[in-house]
Each structure stands twice: as structure tokens, then as C-alpha cells.
Amino acid sequence: MNFASANIGRKIAGVGVDIVYLPRFAHLLEKYSPFDPRSRSTFDKITQKFMHEKERFHLSNLLIEENRLSPRLQEYMAGIWALKECSLKALCCRVSKHDLPPAQVLYAGMLYKTQNDAGVPRLEFDKMFDKKYPKYQQLSKMYGSLFSTHEFLVSLSHDKDYLIAITNLVERE
């Protein structure tokens, strides 16, 4: 069974789309280069605002592999940013924006990007969110079943200067 046939008939609870101008991330990487000791702490502060600890760990591995500023780095960072932006839009289709934590908490604490063995991107809910952010336990009380019964189906695509991300919040199989 292929991916499309496995997902036919699943109910969509929310949809989000975001587009990113990649030179914006290239500029960010040049201005606050992770390879320059003078700007590394600023770079780390920026990534902590929208990247989960698992994503930052993967980023540190990419920095070692690349050992220079590269399109791969900017696409990784831009892809995470775009997925987080469109995930917020998808969640707001089902959850009142007033009930959600601030975007920074949602981006850096609740959700993280992974990929399956075939390289297909995934967006996961952090199961430890309640313990890390006790202030937002009410969210789990009100919408906890949403996070256990739904998942994100995501897609990323880039061409030249642009990257687009799409998320569908769907019922789990």
C-alpha cells in the first residue's frame, strides 16, 4: 500500500501553508555565522526561539558535516521555520489561538521535525511537553485527545529562492 492510498478517507482537522524566501535565511547565517565564535551565542539564541532541542541537535551535526555556510543549512533552518508556521495555522483550525501557548513555546517546545527512513519529513508532538512546560498543562487537559488522536502530514518543497511547507492535521489511522 502506498502513502496516498493509506491516507484516503482520513479526516482533516486543519491545514496550514507557509512560504519562505531562502535568501532571508542565507542572510541570517551570514550575519550570525555559527562558525564565527563572536556571533555563535547570538546564532544559538535565534535557533532556540523556533527550534526544538532535537532539531538543534541535528543542526549541530549538520554544522559539523558541512563545516561551512551552505544551502543545505539554510534549507534545513528555513524548512523548520516554515513547518512551525504552517503547523500553527493548522492547529488554529481546531484549537482556539487563545488556548495555545505563545508561538515560541509551541515551536521550540511542543513540536519537532524528524524524517522517516525514506527522508520524508514528519512533524511530531513532544510527549514531554507537559513536564517541560507545566504552565501549559491546561492545554493538554482541554485538547490532549487531539494530540494523541491526530498527527501532521507534511510536505516541504524548494525551488531556487523559495521554500514552501504544507501541513495537514489529520486523524491518526
Automatic annotation (TrEMBL):
Boundaries of every 4'-phosphopantetheinyl transferase domain copy: 14-124
InterPro entries: 4-PPantetheinyl_Trfase_dom, 4-PPantetheinyl_Trfase_dom_sf, PPTase_2
UniProt keyword Chloroplast present: no
Descriptive protein name: Mitochondrial holo-[acyl-carrier-protein] synthase
Record has Lipid biosynthesis as a keyword: yes
GO cellular component terms, A-Z: mitochondrion
Homology family: Belongs to the P-Pant transferase superfamily. AcpS family.
EC number from the UniProt entry: 2.7.8.7
Primary location: mitochondrion
SUPFAM superfamilies linked to this entry: 4'-phosphopantetheinyl transferase
